[in-house]
């Protein structure tokens, strides 16, 4: 049984380093969406992970979205893996953020080592 990965900038940046992300790309806390708060976020940015508590309202919204999206497929140009392990949403978000920005943030020598592995292996690698 794997424990969920701690989701904070320090831990996420350690994983980025292990993945071969070039220096300069990092996770930072975004404490609000007001203009003055966002002006402190380094630019450019290529991904945003939203961490929020699950509520009954969100669960109802999610179920409605699932019905509306039935039959649609994710573009082959978008890396997508469905979360199947509980408490792994931050890890899955990290995998999506890096995998969908490989050309921008990975050094050529490290491109695509983990993302060619099966999804569960990716998750286990990130948590190790």
Short description:
This protein has 128 residues and is an all-alpha fold.
Provide a descriptive summary of the structure in words:
- The chain is mainly alpha-helical and 128 residues long.
- The protein has one domain (9-51, 78-127): Peptidase C12, ubiquitin carboxyl-terminal hydrolase (Ubiquitin C-terminal Hydrolase UCH-l3, 3-Layer(aba) Sandwich).
- Helix content is 41%, strand content 0%.
- The longest helix is centred in the middle third of the chain and has 14 residues, at 56-69.
- It is globular.
- The relative contact order is 0.20.
- One of its GO terms (molecular function) is cysteine-type deubiquitinase activity.
- Its EC number is 3.4.19.12.
- Keywords: Acetylation, Cytoplasm, Endoplasmic reticulum, Glycoprotein, Hydrolase, Lipoprotein, Membrane, Phosphoprotein, Prenylation, Protease, Thiol protease, Ubl conjugation pathway.
Radius of gyration: 16 Å
Helix content: 40-55%
State the shape: globular
Low-confidence stretches: none
Number of helices: 6
Please identify which CATH superfamily we are dealing with.
Answer: Peptidase C12, ubiquitin carboxyl-terminal hydrolase
Task: Determine the structural class based on helices, strands and strand pairing.
Answer: mainly alpha
Pattern of helices and strands: HHHHHH
Task: Quote the CATH topology.
Answer: Ubiquitin C-terminal Hydrolase UCH-l3
CATH architecture: 3-Layer(aba) Sandwich
Strand content: under 5%
CATH class: Alpha Beta
What integer is the average pLDDT? 83
Overall tally of structural domains: 1
Report the strand count.
0
Largest sheet: none
Distance between the termini: 12 Å
GO molecular function: cysteine-type deubiquitinase activity
Family: Belongs to the peptidase C12 family.
GO biological process, one term: protein deubiquitination
Membrane topology: Lipid-anchor
């Amino acid at each position: 049984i794997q424990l969920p990965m701690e989701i904070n900038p320090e831990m996420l940046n350690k994983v980025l380093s292990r993945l071969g992300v070039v220096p300069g790309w990092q996770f930072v806390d975004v404490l609000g969406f007001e203009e003055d708060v966002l002006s402190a976020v380094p630019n450019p940015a290529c991904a945003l992970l939203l961490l929020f508590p699950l509520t009954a309202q969100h669960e109802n919204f999610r179920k409605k979205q699932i019905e509306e999206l039935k039959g649609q497929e994710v573009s082959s140009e978008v890396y997508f893996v469905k979360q199947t392990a509980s408490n792994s949403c931050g890890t899955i978000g990290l995998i999506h953020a890096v995998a969908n920005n490989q050309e921008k943030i990975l050094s050529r020598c490290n491109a695509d080592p983990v993302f060619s592995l099966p999804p569960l292996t990716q998750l286990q690698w990130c948590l190790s």
